[in-house]
Write a structure and sequence with these properties.
174 residues; alpha/beta; 7 strands; 26% strand
Length: 174
């Protein structure tokens, strides 16, 4: 697992080998950032990375110049490995160990991009979308991206991209 672009391009990300996390593939990650690069100037946006896992998405944003990144995961060993990588890369990323649904209940910031990559067995997508909308956590014209498997479909997304078994569904706050 590595950072694919930006100031830390090619650098390896530290994460526990014995974890059951499913990192976003480099191919899917590159395609995702090609889409986002056409819409956002990364140095001027704030990003929320939910179910951060390896921290790969947060590190990719930071490597591309994003200065305001918050990543959230409940798993303590995952959080510790994200902290190690953050220190290695000297990135300014807020790291929060908390259940994502609980975090959404107490979050007081809003973001241009919210990236959500729960385990593929996760079934509470509607709760996440509802909480983000109810709490107004997505800025006007901001984008919510949900990574999911082929078994999930979202009717109200404006774009769905599939890369093997990885799907990205994009929602916009108009």
């Amino acid at each position: 697992m590595r950072i694919i672009s930006g100031s830390k391009r090619g650098q390896k990300i530290i994460y526990p080998n014995n974890s059951n996390i499913r990192p976003t593939t480099d191919f899917a990650k590159e395609a995702l950032f090609n889409i986002l690069n056409n819409k956002y100037q990364f140095s001027k946006i704030s990003v929320l990375d939910l179910f951060a896992g390896t921290g790969s998405i947060s590190f990719e944003f930071a490597s591309r110049g994003c200065k305001n990144i918050t990543c959230v995961d409940i798993n303590k060993s995952i959080i510790e490995s994200i902290k190690k990588s953050k220190e290695k890369f000297d990135f300014n990323i807020k790291i929060i160990q908390l259940d994502v649904l609980k975090f959404l209940d107490v979050c007081k910031e809003d973001f241009e991009i919210i990236f959500c990559d729960p385990p593929f067995t996760f079934r509470y997508y509607n709760s996440i979308i509802y909480k983000i909308n109810e709490r107004k956590l997505l800025k006007k014209n901001g984008t919510l991206i949900i990574e999911h498997d082929n078994n999930n479909r979202f009717e109200n997304c404006y774009l769905n991209k599939r890369y093997g078994n990885v799907n990205f569904s994009f929602f916009v706050n108009e």
